Amino acid sequence: MKSFLIAVPLLIASTFVQADNTCGKVTIADMNWSSASLIANVDRFILEHGYGCDAELVPGDTMPTGTAMIEKGEPDIAPEMWSNAMKDALDKGVAEKRLRFAGKSLSDGGEEGFWVPQYMVDKDPSLATIEGIIKNAALFTHPEDPERSGFYGCPAGWNCQISSGNLYKALNLEEAGFDLIDPGSGAGLSGSIAKAYERKEAWFGYYWAPTAVLGKYKMVKVDFGSGIDKDEFTSCTSAENCLEPKVTMYPPSLVQTLTTEKFAAASPAVFDYLSKRSFKNSQMNELLAWMEDNQATGDIAMEYYLVNNKDDWMQWVPAEVAAKVEAALDNL
């Protein structure tokens, strides 16, 4: 009996260790943009080789994936969920014990702002401020009218066209001599930055991160001197019917890893990993630039990241898991 009483707790403890480190089949949303696909592939590899999961990538996008996780309980994981896009629905899902947020996919959030090239700020640090931009408006020659200055806004039809246009108005850029330029498309906007960089010309306009463009071309976000007024941004700056916008910096967009509550409860060890796994925008910008330059898919970029950034990802997992992942990388 004494031997039995000793053996039972050991058996139970062993069972819990196995359950905590084996998650069985798990589905991961592979969103249709590069950063999300990279993270999804990193998660798949680490879960499969480090935690013994049967991990599968499934196609995903923000609204369809969030809705499916709430209503159907699948997929199990959305690695890069831009939460503000469906905040009320996701918050309700958490409150109803259908969903659980793990951690921040992007530690400093999605980033928007008005930018100038780093080489301009190196020559004149005042150009990192809106006061310096306005004072030196003549530097930013309009591509079609040398008598005017040019500010590149967000392409027509995009949500950011509203906010960038309202801030253009709030900052009195028209009175300062700037015309609001519609680049026509995302490619047109990124192309204008590339062209300016190649010629070391002045450029001033809207852009966002994480993106390959900000990984390739070092840009400085212009400080409006206003700080962030989130209420103003939500109620007016980002609203189409905003009549009197006030100056505010863009608030960061919350970008989180989302799981179903069922998966989080069943796989605490994996959930712990997902809570720690996070990328800085500066790092993701560089990874996206590498992906674009090498025409790399999320799977190829995953291998590049895991091989070259061991000091980062090994902090997200226990030592024994890291050893298994490293061994799997050696066998690729």
From TrEMBL:
GO cellular component labels: ATP-binding cassette (ABC) transporter complex
Please state every residue range assigned to the domain named ABC-type glycine betaine transport system substrate-binding.
25-306
SUPFAM superfamilies attached here? Periplasmic binding protein-like II
Q: Which UniProt keywords apply?
A: Signal
The protein's name: Glycine betaine/proline transport system substrate-binding protein
Q: Name one GO molecular function term.
A: transmembrane transporter activity
Query: InterPro entries annotated for this entry?
Result: ABC_Gly_betaine_transp_sub-bd (IPR007210)
The signal sequence is 1-19
